[in-house]
Amino acid sequence: MSVACPSCGNTRSFLVKTLQMHVVQVEGTRVDVAEENRPSVFEVLCDECESALAFDQFDEEIRREILLMLGAR
Ligand SMILES: [Zn+2]
Predict the structure, then answer these.
(1) 44 C-alpha vs ligand 1 centroid, how far in Å?
(2) pLDDT at 1 over 80
(3) Ligand 1 centre from 68 Cα, in Å?
C-alpha cells in the first residue's frame, strides 16, 4: 500500500495544504503581482481523522502525481 494514515488506516482521502508566495508591488493605488512562485505542499492531513501525515513518506509516484494535480512543486 503506497499511502495510508497510520492512525485510522484511511488510504483514499487526504487534506493537502499548500503555501504560495507572491511578491506584490504597490504604486499609489495600483497593485501588481510581480512574482508568483508555484505553491509548495505545506501540510498533509488525513481527511478522516486529521492526523498529520509525512508527505515525504508517500510513495514517490503518488507524491509526484499529487504535486502535478496541484500545480505545486
Ligand atoms: Zn486517519
Answers:
(1) 11
(2) no
(3) 23
Grid cell locating 6? 497510520
Question: What is the CA(45)–ligand 1 centre distance, in A?
Answer: 8
As given in the structure block, the three cell numbers for residue 44 are 498533509
Give the domain extent around 20: 14-70
CA of 46 to the centre of ligand 1 (A): 5
| pTM (predicted TM-score) | 0.79
13 vs 26, 30, 44, CA distance in Å?
A: 40, 41, 11
Q: Is residue 1 part of a domain?
A: no
Do the domain assignments include residue 66? yes
Q: How many domains does the chain have?
A: 1
Instruction: State how far the Cα of 33 lies from the Cα of 37, in Å rounded to an integer.
Output: 11
Domain membership of residue 57 (yes or no) is yes
Q: 38 C-alpha vs ligand 1 centroid, how far in Å?
A: 28
